[in-house]
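pipeline/complex-builder :: batch 7 item 3
reading input block
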Amino acid sequence: MAFWFVRGLRRGIATTRYPEKIDSWALALPSPPAFHSARLTTGLVDRLARNCAADAVTREGHELVIDLGRCTGCGRCVELSDGAARPSGEFLLASSDRGALVKRVPIRGDQAR
Amino acid sequence: MTAPDMAISDELGGLSGELRRRALGVFGRSLHIRTVDTGSCAVCESEIRLLAAPHYDLHRLGFFFTPTPRHADLLMVTGPAVRAADNLLLKAYDATPDPKAVIAVGACALGGVYSEDELTHGAVDRVVPVDVFVPGCPPSPLALLQGLLVAVGRLEERVGALSLDLDSGGAR
């Protein structure tokens, strides 16, 4: 049972504590992926880019580039990544700079092989 | 541009920045929001409406929804900016008194999902200037609250320092 519901019954106040504190349940909301750079290979990143419905994932040389503005958090890349990606749990992503939403992750898996 | 022109331009830029900071300071106490749908699937609107529900209660933070852009300080724009909605978006933007702020809400409004073609601009900032971008499909009410608080300068942005490389200590 959600903690805020219990708190509401006990104290009569069910309002979220955000922005002082993030509700714990919110961390389970759909979120953009985070990546294990050591497990990323150029082949895998190309596969992720081909399968990204929102064109949020691309490859630039030895970097995976993800545009958080475009990402819908659908989880398709997480499913296809063989453990190289998982939901980041980050959802407080508001930015006044559109460019700040474009993130780069180095591809280190090729060097390990 | 001559050197004196550039000096005047710099000075105006500085004054404009100062004016904006002061306006945001005023917004920080109370702010009225008008939503504009430019072709969204309505899930972003559903999340925006939840902001007024008891659990999120955005009124405690001094934010209110208003039915007309003429009473608004801030526009929350959803959808991929379909060209058929150009008129309504530009009219709403022009009708909002200065100083005003625009928040682009959701992946569609930020350029995901729909590309630019003869039916849609593909992103809201191709039609009107955007002050804050809130990603998500849809963004949760907490993400929207953060966007509002960032827009009025009451919260610092977090995404600039965010790393998505788990092997370098990124993400949660």
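note: Chain A has a mean pLDDT of 88.
queue -> next item
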